[in-house]
Design a protein that fits this description.
Helices cover 39% and strands 23% of the residues. By secondary structure, it is an alpha/beta fold. The model is unreliable at 3-10 and 322-342 (pLDDT under 50).
Amino acid sequence: MFFYEKAKNSVNNHSLPEEIEFLIFSVLNAKYETKRNVDNNLTNDEEKNRLYLGTYFPRSYTECNNICENLFRNDIIKSKYICTTEISILDIGSGTGGNLLGMLYAVKNCLPSIKNVNILSIDGNDIALDFQKRIINHCQATLKLNINILYKKYIFSPDSLFDDLSIIIKNVSNIKFDFIMSFKFINEFYNKVLTDKFFLYENYLDFSEKYLNTNGLSILLDVTSQDIYKKRRYLPIIIAEEIVPYLRQNDNKLKILLPLSCATNYKICKIKECFTQNIYFVSHQKTSKDITKFCSYVFGKPKFVEEILKHEKIQNNYITCYKYNSSTAYPDGSCINGINTR
């Protein structure tokens, strides 16, 4: 069973590997802010990157590490990589590298046959990429992986984001990827212009379909906080409204694997303001119980997803949320129309 449907797992307290925690806080002087809200990171200077590194890097690491470890422990997924020694990863809007490190440690812990990892890491902030490079170099001995990583600085426009990505890939690699991911990146375009009409989440799926390997997986994760100006609709609802119609119309190209509630019901679901939320607690030397809230989806090619789901025990009910209500939603239950149920 995948962890998404086990609500009790969301309340566990997670920590960083010691070597990462020491590096970011004691060497790179990362700073932590309890109430730091970020709507755009593209122009962050070194000080703001240190604040991001101390506040959001641990959260992104925890999110991706948990998602990937549970994916990689699935028998069907694991069987696809048990006889291979090499994987390829595309990270879009990679920032300081929290989610990328989370995936690499999951590979180390769950896919022992993997020895070589080829990565294309793309972000528009060169300071963030420099922090990412230093952290990955520092951890390479512990990971015991031969990491071949290409860092690409590129400032995207929402009008041409995925067209530009396609050009970058063709120029530097011209390959397909085993794993494509984008963590807390796409929301920045919606925050910057305060709109919900970009259809970038839908375009992300179309892009993933083109560049995923047959047994590859695409992970999309974003925040579940309202925009700081409160002028556009709740982001997780925007995401759901974009991806569900795409999946219905392109059922032969890409399917949703997680959350299982969506994988099993997206064709018949009639609730328009539906979203899922995961909550983790993260501890490090700057805080004993930081909280991260996010929504995430995993996609793959139809044949691969169908093979995985065929061996899953499908439930009648799953933890999810209808209609955003931050004062009543909590990790151990569902929030339906603003009322908590267990």
